[in-house]
Structure formats: structure tokens, C-alpha cells
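Ops channel
N.P.: pipeline sanity check, posting one input/output pair.
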């Protein structure tokens, strides 16, 4: 679950990236509109948070370019421009949400969760696989009704695997969705998170299988 923050206010961008990472998302930041288009079309983002007043290429043009290329990634416009005409234009160009600055962080985080669920075609915030239950809104996991304590990255990996239960998820795709560009990542980091998950889900949770050449598969129960 990877989010691209397109914002030229460096302080605000740092705050948004920090909040997203705290919420279990991998987050990248880009301040230039033209560069943001290239990133949006080359990486597996679950959401784009888009400012309108950008250098290089205005936000509306970024949105137009992304949609013209056929991308369906959810886009949240985050701007101080409160004119109805701007809201209408943004939504007509293909934005999925329009949030005005200043905003409440809790509302921003709730909208992010809703848009990511919508983009994954899984509107229910609660994912289930046998006795395993993951509440994405609350960020909690239970197994047979008992809480399972997961670290942020472990929760991110489990969310992706549960969203695609029964289907192999390539290691490269999983890594791309949970690690940002500027994060220092050990070569075996993904394997470590999966190993920890397996241990915490034993003995009653679903099995995470390694499919050679394909990736990881969460077995539906």
C-alpha cells in the first residue's frame, strides 16, 4: 500500500509522509508536477495525494496526464483552493476526493483509508481469512478473537496478502508497495517480515506459502 504525496510545501509534505508511514503505508514525496506524472505511471501506487499549485506542471494537468494514460489509481486533491469551480473541475477530471487546507489529520487519514479500500475494490474495512480478522480502519488484528500484536510493516504485508488471499503476490510487487524510495531497506527485510508473520499466526492462523518464482500466497481457509 504505497502512497505518492505530490506537494511543494516541504514542511507539509514531511508531515503527511510521516503520518502515512505511521499508518502503515509506504509513502513517497514529489514536489514537481512533471516528475510526479512519471512516478505515478511507473510505480504501483494505491493512492495519489495531489496539490494543485505545483512547479513544473499544475496539479490539474498532472491529474489529466495520469487519467489520459489510463491509470485508475485513486487521487485525492489536497488544496487551499476552495472555489466550487475548482472542486467541480477536479472531480470532472477524475479526482476521487477533494480535501481543503487546512484540514484535520484524523479526517485526512480516514479519507486515505477509504480511497485505498475503494481502489482495491474491497469496500469493507474488515478483512477475514478463517479465524484471522484484520480491521483496516482500527489497524487491529485478531486471531480466534485474541489480539495479535504486529509491527507496522508486518501489518502492511498482512493487509496486502489478505486483500489478495488465494493469489500469489510477487516479492517485487510486495516490496514496491511497502517500501518508499528513500527508505534504507536490508536485502532480506521482506523475508524477515513474512517469517515474523508466520510465527505470529501459528498454530491456528492461515498459512503463508512461498511459491517459488511467484512470491507469497496466503492460503484461504
Amino acid at each position: 500500500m504505497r502512497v505518492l504525496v505530490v506537494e511543494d510545501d516541504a514542511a507539509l509534505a514531511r508531515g503527511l509522509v510521516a503520518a502515512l508511514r505511521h499508518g502503515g503505508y509506504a509513502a513517497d514525496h514529489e514536489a514537481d508536477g512533471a516528475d510526479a506524472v512519471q512516478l505515478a505511471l511507473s510505480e504501483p501506487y494505491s493512492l495519489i495525494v495531489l496539490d494543485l499549485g505545483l512547479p513544473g506542471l499544475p496539479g490539474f494537468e498532472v491529474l489529466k496526464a495520469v487519467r489520459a494514460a489510463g491509470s485508475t489509481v485513486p487521487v485525492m486533491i489536497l488544496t487551499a483552493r476552495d472555489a466550487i469551480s475548482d472542486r467541480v473541475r477536479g472531480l470532472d477530471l477524475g479526482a476521487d476526493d477533494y480535501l481543503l487546507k487546512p484540514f484535520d489529520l484524523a479526517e485526512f487519514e480516514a479519507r486515505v483509508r477509504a480511497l485505498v479500500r475503494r481502489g482495491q475494490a474491497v469496500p469493507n474495512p474488515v478483512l477475514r481469512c478463517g479465524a484471522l480478522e484484520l480491521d483496516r480502519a482500527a489497524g487491529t488484528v485478531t486471531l480466534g478473537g485474541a489480539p495479535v500484536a504486529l509491527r507496522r510493516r508486518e501489518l502492511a504485508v498482512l493487509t496486502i496478502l489478505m486483500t489478495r488471499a488465494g493469489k500469489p503476490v510477487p516479492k517485487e510487487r510486495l516490496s514496491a508497495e511497502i517500501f518508499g524510495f528513500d527508505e534504507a531497506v536490508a536485502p532480506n527485510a521482506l523475508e524477515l517480515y513474512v517469517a515474523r508473520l508466520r510465527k505470529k499466526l501459528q498454530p491456528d492462523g492461515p498459512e503463508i506459502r512461498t511459491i517459488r518464482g511467484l512470491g507469497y500466497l496466503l492460503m484461504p481457509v
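N.P.: looks fine end to end. The chain has a mean pLDDT of 89.
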